[in-house]
Design the sequence.
């Protein structure tokens, strides 16, 4: 696949866990995998960030973080508040391209949603994907509000000529309500792309071997898993 950009429809939708799951299955297939987190916010120096979680769950992956800011804000706002250098999309794209030279798969995980600002010029993850010519995977929530957020994300990508390869539900609830069950049918319509998985909420608490097994059941063959969206949707909408 080369480079795949992973964006969320917002915060706390399971983007890091989805990234780790894709990485874990690719590693299991013998692929050389790198995960790039351009900007980590809300974490201080010396504290474990998202990439520590990816390494714990996925195993033998190369990880790289370009900036770290202590405040839990957008990268641009966190950089400004801390008086630290911000991050231009060209630097992110350059780092991803460099990793792509000696890896089979490079996952670029954004911060928050697609149009969260990295720098004072308004650079976003969408600009990174466009610069790389890379497809984007949308990680969405399960419940109310997710269709609008997913449609807006997909529309922004189409406007820039960036491909959306699919949508994954990052935190599928143990007891899905009516909205979540209905959204399984409607999310691919909102995204204009297929449903490529639904990861169980709480999967990150599992040990790595069980995490990998659950990831395989929860991600599409496009992402090295065994997930069948038609079967899963039928099961939960019957």
Sequence:
């Amino acid at each position: 696949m080369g480079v795949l950009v992973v964006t969320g429809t917002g915060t706390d939708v399971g983007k890091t866990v989805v990234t780790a799951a894709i990485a874990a299955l690719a590693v299991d297939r013998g692929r050389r995998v790198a995960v790039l987190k351009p900007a980590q916010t809300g974490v201080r120096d010396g504290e474990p960030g998202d990439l520590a979680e990816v390494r714990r769950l996925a195993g033998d992956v190369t990880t790289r973080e370009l900036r770290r800011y202590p405040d839990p804000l957008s990268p641009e706002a966190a950089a400004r508040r801390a008086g630290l250098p911000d991050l231009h999309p060209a630097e992110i794209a350059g780092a991803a391209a460099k990793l792509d030279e000696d890896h089979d798969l490079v996952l670029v995980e954004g911060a928050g949603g697609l149009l969260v600002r990295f720098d004072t010029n308004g650079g976003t993850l969408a600009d990174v994907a466009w610069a790389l010519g890379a497809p984007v995977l949308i990680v969405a929530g399960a419940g109310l509000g997710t269709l609008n957020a997913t449609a807006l994300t997909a529309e922004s990508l189409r406007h820039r000529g960036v491909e959306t390869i699919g949508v994954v539900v990052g935190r599928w609830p143990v007891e899905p309500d009516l909205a979540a069950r209905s959204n399984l049918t409607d999310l691919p319509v909102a995204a204009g792309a297929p449903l490529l998985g639904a990861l169980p909420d709480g999967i990150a608490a599992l040990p790595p071997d069980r995490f990998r097994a659950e990831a395989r059941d929860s991600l599409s063959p496009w992402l090295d898993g065994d997930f069948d969206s038609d079967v899963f949707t039928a099961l939960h909408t019957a």
